[in-house]
Amino acid sequence: MNITAKTRFGLKALMDIAYHHRVGPVQRRHIAVRQGIPTDYMDQILMRLRNGGLIQSLRGREGGYHLALEPDEITVWDVVTSVEDEPYSVNGYTPEENLAYATECITEPAWSAVSDSIVQQLKNCTLAKMLSEAEGRILAKGLDPVDLMESRPKNGTQNHIRNVVGLPHNS
Question: How many structural domains is the chain composed of?
């Protein structure tokens, strides 16, 4: 499976917004700092998430981004289909591009089954489930999730959050 930077960053941004869902809109620069996403790339990702109907934006001093749906209504597959131009699950298997390959290839049923399985898993994984698992990891380490994901990140908080929730430093 090929997970692109668009999908990784899109999911990280959406998880950050979801974490603050009950508090209010989140400013893009705060998401970028907490999640280590370049701000230029952040604008592209947020636009795609908004066009995909997953987030909404509010203008003004207290504005920012918030979820358009509840966390249990948004799946990882929703993120993939919102941010990717042509999402597919199995790297190298794109039957739409070559129908002769798809119908004549003896391995097509296996790749199709793998692809369908991956898509089904992504459809079953909601933001609510991911938030719960992340909070569980934070609490298991004896840390306060509110302090870690405060609206306005402090200097040095970014790497600490990544360590707690299991995110690599360069992702």
Answer: 1
Looking at the domain assignment, is residue 49 inside a domain? yes
Give the C-alpha separation, 25 to 122, whole Å.
Answer: 26
d(CA 163, CA 110): 37
The 10s digit of each residue's pLDDT in 33-58 is 888 999 889 999 999 999 999 999 99
Query: SS3 of 26, please?
Result: strand
What pTM, to 2 d.p., does this model score?
Answer: 0.74
Judge whether 48 lies within some domain: yes
pLDDT in tens, 66-76: 999 999 999 99
Which residue segment(s) compose the domain that 161 sits in? Answer: 5-165
CATH number at residue 76: 1.10.10.10
